[in-house]
Amino acid sequence: MGHKVNPNILRIGIIKTWDNKWYANKKNFSKLLHQDIEIEKIIRGRLADASVSHIEIQRTANRVIIIIHSAKPGLIIGRQGAGIETLKEELEKKFHEEFSLSIREIQKPTLDAMLVADSIAKQVEKRVAYRRASKMAIDKIMEAGAIGAKVNCAGRLNGVEIARTEFFSKGKIPLHTLRADIDYAIVHAKTAFGTIGIKVWIYRGDIFKRKSEVKVTTK
């Protein structure tokens, strides 16, 4: 099961929650869902170099609240807030709704699966050896305090004719333990030989809920 189910989705309602939080009836659900996908596509396109991990979207009666989690908030905000204002105006012009944008800084980028996978993908696109990029990423993850890490590279690795899959791992990744705080991400690297898929799993410890308090323990 651990190899076939997204670890983030498997833990929703247990130790994780949804990134997009809103309610809609049958008539508007499809429209708002596709709008969320388009909003995320626009933001990721404009902020490709800003180390964006994930985007939260919340909707009220007359406003769309967007929270962008990034390792480089200054790059998004821009000089005197010009960058974020430009992005807000672009979204309002396209979707004809009122938007509210806020940025949250990621304190430890090396423990964020999306940022690590994106870093490996960019190195592979620049012709860095995938083995070297993956092993260096795992070493940095473990140095940052993770209990376990795993990287999977799949595709025409090194430009060979037959596609294959290679795993690199260190520590442990308890995929079936639902209280285990496992961050997961997949990113595609566009190379001259085709697309290479890069998956990253990071085990950061266990989460226990007691009396409405969340306690994180590491081993």
Describe this structure in words.
By secondary structure, the protein is an alpha+beta fold. The chain folds into two domains: 7-105, K homology (KH) domain (GMP Synthetase, Chain A, domain 3, 2-Layer Sandwich), CATH 3.30.300.20; 109-217, Ribosomal protein S3, C-terminal domain (Ribosomal protein S3 C-terminal domain, 2-Layer Sandwich). Helices cover 32% and strands 34% of the residues. It has helices at 7-10, 26-46, 73-77, 82-95, 113-125, 130-143; strands at 20-21, 52-59, 64-70, 99-105, 148-155, 164-171, 180-191, 194-210, 213-217. The strands form two sheets. Strands 5, 6, 7, 8 and 9 form a five-stranded antiparallel beta sheet that branches. A four-stranded mixed beta sheet has the order 1-2-3-4. A hairpin with a 4-residue loop joins β2 and β3 (64-70). α5 packs antiparallel against α6. The protein is globular and about 50 Å long. The chain starts with 6 loop residues before the first helix and ends with a strand.
Give the structure's gist in a few sentences.
By secondary structure, this protein is an alpha+beta fold. Helices cover 32% and strands 34% of the residues.
Throw out a few tags for this protein.
about 220 residues; alpha+beta; GMP Synthetase, Chain A, domain 3; Ribosomal protein S3 C-terminal domain; 2 domains; 5-stranded antiparallel beta sheet; 4-stranded mixed beta sheet; 9 strands; globular; disordered C terminus
Arithmetic mean pLDDT: 90
Envelope shape: globular
Structural class: alpha+beta
Total helical elements? 6
- Per CATH, the class of the largest domain reads Alpha Beta
Number of domains: 2
Helix content: 25-40%
Q: Supply the CATH architecture of the largest domain.
A: 2-Layer Sandwich
The CATH topology label of the largest domain is Ribosomal protein S3 C-terminal domain
